[in-house]
Every structure is written in C-alpha cells, then in structure tokens.
Amino acid sequence: MDPVIFIGGAGDSGSGIVKNYAAQFARDNRDLIVxxxxxxxxxxxxxxxxxxxxxxxxxxxGHSWGGDTAMEVANALxxxxxxxxxxxxxxxxxxxxxxxxxxxxxLWINVNAVGGSSFDGGNFVAGGLAALYGGGAYNNNPRPYAxxxxxxxxxxxxxxxxxxxxxxxxxPVRNVLTGQVGND
Length: 184
Known about the structure:
8 helices; six-stranded parallel sheet; single chain; two-stranded antiparallel ribbon; alpha/beta; Rossmann fold
C-alpha cells in the first residue's frame, strides 16, 4: 500500500477542508495509506516518511501554507517524494528554493487558483494576510520548475475543486495519487 500524505494550510485547523478531503480520500481509496498533517508539522512529516519502506513511492499533497511545508519536506528528502502536488501554495521560498523542489521530486504538479476577488475570504488569507507572516501566494512563481502547472478558476479555499481540476494529460489531479492518470 502506497502512502499519500495531505498537509493542510494554516487555516485548515478551523476550516478542515484538507483534513476532511483526506478522510474521504482514505475511505474512497482503501488500498492506499492516507495520513494528514498540519502545515506546522513538517518535522513530523519527515519522520513519518523516514519510517516508511524506502522503496515505497510517497505522494505528498499540500494546500496553502501546507504546500510550502510539502516543498520543504521535498527539499529535506531529495529523491524520496515520487509525486508532489501543491494546491495554491503560500510561503516565502524564492527561485533557488523552487528550483530545488523541482529537482528533488519525481513529478511536481502545482495548481494556481485565480478565481474570485482578492476580498474572497480564502483569497484574502492567501494574498494579503499571509504577507503579514512573511509569506504570500506563490502564484506563477513555480511555473518554470513544476512538471505541470495548472491555472484554475477556483478560489483559494476550494481545495476539493482544485483536486478535481483537470490537467491536459492527467485528468483530475486526484487521479495522479491513485495511479489512474488520464481517467475520469
């Protein structure tokens, strides 16, 4: 059974959008080992991955500030993450950080949300409020380094909608995690 790790953003402790999605994903995919962490548990994610069979392909999905954590995990464990999915990531990494992420994973899919106004609750948190904590939305910055860069007309808080977003050769993003590329 292959592990899939979900990492929620800073607001997930209140909204539960990633935690709830991960729970449903686990129910729908009983052949996978699904774990959930929060954005501030990067060391726990690294310890969890280090405790897995080294030959097992590991998929990591991070949303918002959890996307930044997922990228930090990828850089801490070069070559260990087979699939990295960052859903509208928020953080403070620069060009060299993003380049390293692209080099350290097997496949990196980044989703950039462009729907709604900047005053939409989730969009406001991702853009303006994150800047108060030393970060901000990555927006187009991962484009040169991610293997696939999707721009979707979803709001920042529509995690489920973005996981169901369709890439030109993969079908819905979620299918990459289940090995059903191109289906749906």
